[in-house]
Design brief:
This protein has about 130 residues and is mainly β. The protein is built from one helix and eleven strands, in the order βββββββββαββ. The longest helix is centred in the last third of the chain and has 4 residues, at about 105. The chain starts with a strand and ends with a strand.
């Protein structure tokens, strides 16, 4: 019943753009943070971005600052990750996750994230 579903991944050339979507069902995003994470083959999962529903605060990993933008559409109960100027090192499975916490907590621990999506694959290659 409570689910997050990522979509929008695919193959894109370096310098290109993709918009990922994280659609929530079974609950509304009010009072939840939504975080985007990614895991590349052979590497540990890393945080990418986060948005807090309470105050709209956003956070970005240094590796994506200036290139990625996180946003929220409350009417659609969906969070987006606009990814521009994509690099091969952005290749990964991207996951969204949510919990009753603020992004200030999410950026330091994933322990309180309650629901994870299944992931969507982003491949940046010529």
């Amino acid at each position: 019943q409570v689910q997050l579903v990522e979509s929008g991944g695919g193959l894109v050339q370096p310098g290109g753009s993709l918009r990922l979507s994280c659609a929530a069902s079974g609950f509304t995003l009010d009072y939840y943070a939504i975080g985007w994470f990614r895991q590349a083959p052979g590497k540990e999962r890393e945080g990418v971005s986060c948005i807090s529903s309470s105050d709209g605060s956003t956070y970005y990993a240094d590796s994506v600052k200036g290139r990625f933008t996180i946003s929220r559409d409350n009417a659609k109960n969906t969070v987006y990750l606009q990814m521009n100027s994509l690099k091969p090192e952005d290749t990964a499975v991207y996951y969204c996750a949510t919990g009753h916490v603020h992004c200030t907590i999410v950026v330091v621990t994933t322990r309180y994230l309650e629901v994870w999506g299944q992931g969507t694959l982003v491949t940046v290659s010529s």
